[in-house]
From TrEMBL:
<dbReference type="GO" id="GO:0004312">
    <property type="term" value="F:fatty acid synthase activity"/>
</dbReference>
<protein>
    <submittedName>
        <fullName>Polyketide synthase type I</fullName>
    </submittedName>
</protein>
<dbReference type="Pfam" id="PF08659">
    <property type="entry name" value="KR"/>
</dbReference>
<dbReference type="InterPro" id="IPR050091">
    <property type="entry name" value="PKS_NRPS_Biosynth_Enz"/>
</dbReference>
<dbReference type="InterPro" id="IPR057326">
    <property type="entry name" value="KR_dom"/>
</dbReference>
<keyword id="KW-0597">Phosphoprotein</keyword>
<keyword id="KW-0596">Phosphopantetheine</keyword>
<dbReference type="InterPro" id="IPR036291">
    <property type="entry name" value="NAD(P)-bd_dom_sf"/>
</dbReference>
<dbReference type="InterPro" id="IPR013968">
    <property type="entry name" value="PKS_KR"/>
</dbReference>
<dbReference type="GO" id="GO:0006633">
    <property type="term" value="P:fatty acid biosynthetic process"/>
</dbReference>
<feature type="domain" description="Ketoreductase">
    <location>
        <begin position="264"/>
        <end position="412"/>
    </location>
</feature>
Length: 420
């Protein structure tokens, strides 16, 4: 799971990155110099008649050695080889005013935009798809920022925006930025949608910004637009901008140990599915004795067959339960109590429905199909079955094209991690 960058406790790895201004006088220790070189003009030398126009100075970091890609096979048992996490790196401050590049800047939101916009920027409140499409053709916009109001409805507006921009081959829009307020979870899907759009339309830069302090929102958006090589930004309480970098996981040891208790119950939503069955097998091998599978359909014969052996080691029951329905999850909870099964200490949430599609083939209704089982299901399971003695909650994300759900679950997980 990606780390919460705001958590400045033991897991915080934010570091300062400084920019060095180039100097034309290079002072380099020859003994350290590699064979690379750079041409530099120097005011003193150029004033001398005999001095060459250019001077070659070897730079120590410019080595001519080309490293061949490693042929060493990756050790699949060594997690340090393959697990990465996000590190947020702070950038030098860009000032509190948004800088103005060339172009026409549009800011849209479902709410009224109460910000003092600089010249060249226009803010428009949008409520429906037709209105949005009309606004987009009103002017030759080059940059569009969308201010989220923190609700699921914002994801719908973002989908309309991306579909309209993607469809219009004459559009001059080259950058789109979604701004979400720190702590909101219902609009986390904006980050997923923008990642999907980025893959499908690499020629249009889609950026995401999470901000903490509205005072610095405009300058943060301005900095996003300026840094067209970056995709994701965080603006902290003081308006400092951070960008994400990948690095190898550092705390793998603590995340690999999973031993289960025989006096606890474990829940697997979507337990009849492919991954659900893998999870049952794993939980039994790790010592679980009470396992409940949740599924909308009744026991399938092939699943029944697979459970024969596992049932010799553990009590495994299937409950008919649609996890997207709160009442069904409450029913599962009541069943556990009635049967006097031990307290739930772990949930593996694999329930999910495939609702795949490219950006142009998506609709808010289609997105809702997968969202209900994944995100609403995750919320209900957490609300009604997780408690203080809880041990783990493993959420399985959906396929990449529905990154909206994955991002929302990621946000939920970060909140719940702090809660537990
Ligand atoms: N398999 C992979 O390689 C892979 C890779 C990446 C992500 N995933 C994700 O991981 C999840 C599980 O994958 P899978 O391959 O095991 O899928 P699967 O075989 O289709 O199983 C999904 C299970 O979820 C259950 N389900 C769906 N909606 C439900 C609901 N509202 N309440 C309760 N149960 C529900 C379905 O059973 P009923 O129809 O009986 O309810 C089904 O058994 C999916 O979300 C998938 O997108 C899978």
């Amino acid at each position: 799971m990606l780390m919460s960058w705001w958590n400045l406790g033991k897991k915080s790895h934010t570091r300062e990155t400084t920019t060095k201004v180039a100097n034309s006088n290079f002072e380099v220790d020859a003994s350290e110099a590699g064979s690379g070189f750079v041409s530099s003009t120097n005011s003193q030398e150029s004033s001398s008649a005999n001095a060459p126009l250019f001077r070659s100075v070897s730079l120590p970091w410019n080595k001519s050695v080309i490293t061949e890609p490693s042929t060493k096979p990756v050790d699949k048992n060594d997690l340090t080889e393959s697990l990465f996490e996000t590190e947020w790196v702070s950038l030098p401050s860009g000032g509190s005013e948004p800088s103005l590049g060339l172009g026409s800047y549009l800011i849209i939101s479902r709410d009224a935009i109460n910000l003092e916009l600089p010249q060249g920027w226009q803010g428009i409140q949008v409520s429906d798809k037709k209105e949005l499409e009309a606004i987009l053709t009103q002017k030759a916009w080059t940059h569009v920022a969308m201010l989220s109001t923190g609700h699921e409805e914002d994801v719908k507006l973002a989908l309309w925006l991306l579909q309209a921009v993607g469809r219009n081959t004459d559009s001059r829009i080259k950058q789109i930025c979604f701004a979400t307020k720190f702590g909101s979870t219902d609009d986390a899907g904006l980050w997923g949608l923008s990642r999907t759009f980025r893959l499908e339309y690499p020629e249009i830069r889609t950026q995401c910004l999470e901000y903490k302090n509205t005072q610095y929102l405009l300058s943060a958006i301005g900095q996003c637009f300026e840094r067209s090589e970056e995709d994701e930004f965080l603006s902290d309480q003081n308006g400092k901008i951070h960008v994400s970098r990948l690095r190898r996981c550092t705390d793998i040891e603590s995340s690999t140990k999973l031993s289960l208790r025989g006096d606890a119950s474990y829940i697997i939503s979507g337990g009849q599915g492919a991954l659900g069955l893998v999870a049952v097998d794993l939980l039994v091998r790790r010592g679980a004795k009470y396992i409940v599978l949740l599924s909308r359909s009744s026991m399938k014969p092939e699943v029944e067959d697979k459970l024969i052996n596992l049932r010799k080691h553990a009590n495994i029951e299937l409950l008919s339960c649609d996890v997207s329905q709160e009442v069904d999850v409450l029913y599962a909870k009541a069943w556990l109590e009635r049967k006097k099964w031990p307290a739930v200490r772990g949930i593996v949430h694999t329930a999910g429905v495939l609702s795949d599609g490219t950006i142009q083939n998506q609709s808010s209704e289609k997105l809702q199909v997968s969202y209900s089982a994944k995100v609403n299901g995750a919320r209900y399971l957490h609300t009604h079955l997780c408690h203080q003695t809880f041990y783990f909650y493993f959420l399985l994300p959906l396929q990449p094209s529905v990154l909206r759900d994955r991002e929302t679950m990621q946000q939920l997980m970060q909140h719940w991690t702090h809660w537990h």
